[in-house]
Amino acid sequence: MKIVIPIGGIGNRLRMLSSVHNAGVRSICYINIRSDALNACPSVYVNFDHFERVSIINLPKLPDKLIRRLLGGATQLIYYFSLGKLAAPYNIRSTSGAAFIICTCHEFKSGVKTAADFFPRAASDEGFKRSLSLEPARYNAMHIRLGDNKRAASRFDIEIYRNFIEESLIPVYVATDNAELKARFVNDFPEKIFVSDLVPERGTELGIAQAVAELQFLKGADNFLGSAQSSFSRLVYLLRGDSIE
Length: 245
Fold this sequence. Notes:
The protein is of the alpha/beta class. Helices cover 38% and strands 17% of the residues.
């Protein structure tokens, strides 16, 4: 059994967990640390059926930055002092090896080829579909992450997304954590844009379940445009089999 400690939001945690599975690990002790980025029990965002043995330990909510610094630093120290026998490096990229403790927000070992199997099916899927202003048979989609992600905000160029909408021959779904930007797109492209009336709230279990449902919806788009530096967008690209630019 390996101790698995995913860090970050939904995108980071699902990428990391599916990478552990792809590396051949089938028995895990899953340490779930609630954070500002993901305040929920793992059953809300993970389906563990593909593991043979799972033990779950839920820890109290902590600030996401504190989690990254403390656990990331501790994992690195254990890795170096045990010569890689007890822990994998925090920035692990190639394999889980024989490490007993895996703590990271990165994917490794062939990406997330099986990640779709890790999404739980819940009533939130239907609730999400009912929240849509339109439900076309075919659609394109885009995800814009701004909010508290400073790196994503610094690389945001609205013209790229406007061009994506203008060139689309089918409706475009807009997923974003910025209500003002969503309203702007709806106002500028009333005949092309459709949205969900749900308010993104990652601080609740319902909000996390809705985010997973939205991720599945983005995966099903004909074409997808994500945000730079967003793990959520990266996960959509990987699930779709698209190249990540």
